[in-house]
Amino acid sequence: MQNITALFSHPTIKSIDKELEKVFQNVPHLPKKATEVLAKIAPYLTLVSGLFLITGGLRSIFGANDYYRIFNFWKGIPPVYFYLTGLLQIVSGIVSVSIYKPLKNRELQGWFGLLCLSLLGLIMNLVSVFFFKDGLFGLLFSLAVSLYILYEVKPEYGLAGTIIAKVEKVKAKVEEVKAKVKEVKSEIKKVETKIKSKTK
What we know:
By secondary structure, the chain is mainly alpha-helical. Helices cover 83% and strands 0% of the residues.
């Protein structure tokens, strides 16, 4: 997994990031609370979607002939389409699973993983447009929306994001300690009441 996440810091990815950052730096921004929520749920969404992508990709590769034979909708589409999209789904799924921990720790590497997923999604959509000869507008619209959200949540990652994640862990542990202290206090009260009742 570490070898996979190391690819996200490739100079090509970073140069793409710099160009896209210029595009999205002056757009209207989402509220801070919205980006915080998105950053919190991102690890879980990517993990679940990653598992679905892997299983879907395997189904596309090993069931390509079944799709081709059973559904009339796929009659004009060659089996190579299913093999190609299946392979891209598996790669996207592996990337999604590999960035779960970096995203949870609010590491910038996790965010670069999300950028790679967007680029892989673009390639998958281009393959679909090539074979189906349709859906170019939808592709551009979904790409613009996904990149917009991606660059809105970017400030949540990196050094500041890692500190926030650690603070949240500390807060969770403090709450656990508080709950245990309450339990101990209630037990002490029970013992005190029993002692008082016996002395009477």
